[in-house]
Amino acid sequence: xxxxxxxxxxxxxxxxxxxxxxxxxxxxxxxxxxxxxxxxxxxxxxxxxxxxxxxxxxxxxxxxxxxxxxxxxxxxxxxxxxxxxxxxxxxxxxxxxxxxxxxxxxxxxxxxxxxxxxxxxxxxxxxxxxxxxxxxxxxxxxxxxxxxxxxxxxxxxxxxxxxxxxxxxxxxxxxxxxxxxxxxxxxxxxxxxxxxxxxxxxxxxxxxxxxxxxxxxxxxxxxxxxxxxxxxxxxxxxxxxxxxxxxxxxxxxxxxxxxxxxxxxxxxxxxxxxxxxxxxxxxxxxxxxxxxxxxxxxxxxxxxxxxxxxxxxxxxxxxxxxxxxxxxxxxxxx
Length: 334
What we know:
Layout: E1 2-3, E2 7-9, E3 13-16, E4 24-26, E5 36-39, E6 42-45, E7 50-51, E8 53-58, E9 72-77, H1 91-94, H2 96-99, E10 106-107, H3 110-119, E11 124-127, H4 136-148, E12 152-157, H5 163-169, E13 175-179, H6 184-190, H7 196-207, E14 211-218, H8 226-239, E15 245-249, H9 264-276, E16 282-285, E17 295-296, E18 303-308, E19 311-315
Parallel strand pairs: 9-11, 11-12, 12-13, 13-14, 14-15, 15-16
Antiparallel strand pairs: 1-6, 2-3, 3-4, 5-6, 7-10, 8-9, 17-18, 18-19
Helix pairs in contact: 3-4
């Protein structure tokens, strides 16, 4: 347990400034995330140094396709989340503090995370699986040490953090994959949130020089209309045509077991919408072997990174340059 960052004491509550909910938390109560508690006017993180998961993953699993492709990342998470998505794939840990009042994990200090990453040959540390914003103090301390040790840091995030939190972590954060889930109605009805804070976070990340990739999980009849997808593509184009868009296939989970898997034709149509909007890189997700997993040069259209699932089969880039037409491919490459 650790005193939280970014909160303000009021008369009979504390106001958390970590995410866009800006919870007003009374004595003995917790915020929406379920892991930040007001104890006698002091806000505490209940998950500091308490990892519920620590694994080595291909960076493509996050998914990142333009951030150290082919490398491995040490992935770390605690329980809890500031959203309540009915389709969550990691609900057993993200919703545990709210569904079961469960705070669990193993003691894993930042220094040991960094040491493990280096010993195992990982190039980065991913704060992932649940929402890294809710274990911000833990991620911040780890990222600070990791940066000094020559490792990269990335967030796999819902983008619902506050501007204050994002500016605080920015000097140590190299990349972020942000879920842009749908329109505002989608956020309200399925996630207990709003869309605009996510859009604002993406804009701010770009301004702060953080490499951004965006993921949209397509759920039949929920966010698959041409209007919703065109608006998302238009927004991505506005913040930067170089921003990769990952369009992933939904499989039934958590509280949405009655929704069928996304037809592959829906993914293909969404990719066309993205490409027609002028985006340089649009990817298919959760369809191993699909041509949409590969990276194509935006200028000469030749394949330059071939993938299947989370594996890179070949990478012809040299210093981030297309070998065919010499176009500079956007991203962070080694």
